[in-house]
Model the fold of this input.
Amino acid sequence: MAKHAFLSASASHRWLECPPSAKLCSEQEDRASPYAQQGTDCHELCAYLVEKELGKDVTDPTENLTYFDQEMQDCAEGYCSFVMEQIEEAKKHCQDPQVLIEQRLDFSRWVENGFGTGDCVIVADDVLQIIDYKHGLGVLVSAEMNPQMMCYALGALELFDGIYDINSIQMTIFQPRRENVSTCNITKDELLSWADEILKPTAELAYEGKGEFKAGEHCQFCKVKATCRKRAEYNLELAQYDFEMPPTLEETEVTAILPKIDSLISWVTDIKEYALQQALSGTHYDGFKVVEGRANRKYTDDDAVAFAAKDAGFDPYEKKLLGITAMTALMGKKKFEEVLGKYITKPQGKPTLVPESDKRPAINTAYEDFSEN
Done:
């Protein structure tokens, strides 16, 4: 029986943690989302701007992009500037660095039929650099031992190791909407050891649908996350706590619950959405029914409403100060800073309880304030 190429680099963070999930996901239909298309559009714009800056004859894709807006333009321009800075840096220790944009990278020596597309690969003597653009806003992506980036690096090594004297790998995530530029450096030997000792044997398990199911943060983009039994068991462990009597919980119990709260919320939300879609398709769940949700009134024709209101002697429009993003687009970044920079402030964000691994600095708590007095 022929094996299918379903072990993608972009999903490697999941199937490396939970090998049998790969085969299950391959049997599910892909569902395109607006967020995915938005990311695709911005990648296309990023590639265009970089290639144009490199002097290539390329066509501006803007008019064909579904979700193009000023924010996307700003993000792509920021990415282009970053890439050009890295290219100039590479030229300092290599006369002829290779720059590959949207390059197909094959790492099938370790993962059968394994390939992916690298947003930007800069190949120079000593250092191979992989840069990956992320347009998403919801998840902060780290380059630290990032398996997708490491798979791309393996593919780039397959192309250029031997032509260039590569000793180290620099992997960078550029995520402008989260103000995140994350970089990880590893040696070529470290990368190859990971590929031989972890990537290759785990990929072999995943192809056969073998290995142990494992629940965790990697479940987020899994196609079977709503009905996965291992994920259910993982979250139902919280059932041992009696939520009807929260005052009885000890601090140690709260500490044990906290790390799983976000996962639990995500899981029950996925279950509700899955059940709704199944119910709409005809599945009946005892004790439940599908009803029409609340809807707000809306105009059927904005232009007709405005005309009718004016005709009746009323002004149908409200005046509103442009937001910061729209005002920046109107004036341009330089003029905006010059004219309005002194009026811009960033208030303190709402306190949020997060794991200690979060990179944001801790704020003073009431206990710390009291202790300082």
In short: The chain has three domains: 12-207, 225-280, 302-343.
